[in-house]
Amino acid sequence: METSLGLCIGIGLSAACGFRVFVPLLVMSIAALIGWFEPMKGFEWLALPSVCIALGIATLCEIAAYYIPWVDNALDSIATPAAMVAGTLSTMAVSSGEMSQFAAWAAAIIVGGGTATAVQMSTVAVRGVSTATTGGIANPIVSTAEWIGAILVSILSFLVPVLVVIVGVIMMIWVVRWVRSKSKNKINPSAL
After folding, report:
1. Transmembrane segments in this chain: where (predicted)?
2. Angle between helices 49-65 and 22-34 (to 10 degrees)
3. What is the residue extent of each domain of the chain?
């Protein structure tokens, strides 16, 4: 059960990394400092006050940069691989000691990195649509929703990890169905 719970927390944190790279790492650092969780061996650095301060500064810079027109789109090209790395590290940091190192890293890369990348790619698509349809005017609204989502998902991942995963799966199914219906309408305009 401890392994499953760790993976659920990791999946939630990884999804949050797809919204904002540094927010989940900051939440993890704060959680480690206040005793909500103990990072896995090798990730004790998350519980250092200096790391928490550095992550706080990085988080503020990342959030602020997404409010600068056109910089937000440029950041997406950097944020996509960074989200994968952050999602992998987030999942690995909360993994239980029950798994072998190989299994833990494999799960972190596949589940954590994959989740973060999938969420990040969807935010890139949303920002692209926002830029194309509004000339970037609506991008600050998208940015605000993303960082608020990152904070909420990060905190809820520690409080109700299984619920976060269930809601995440439901949302992904809904998004896939929505995209499929939109693509069918573009292909067959008479279906409207």
Report:
1. 12-34, 46-68, 74-95, 102-127, 147-176
2. 150
3. 2-162
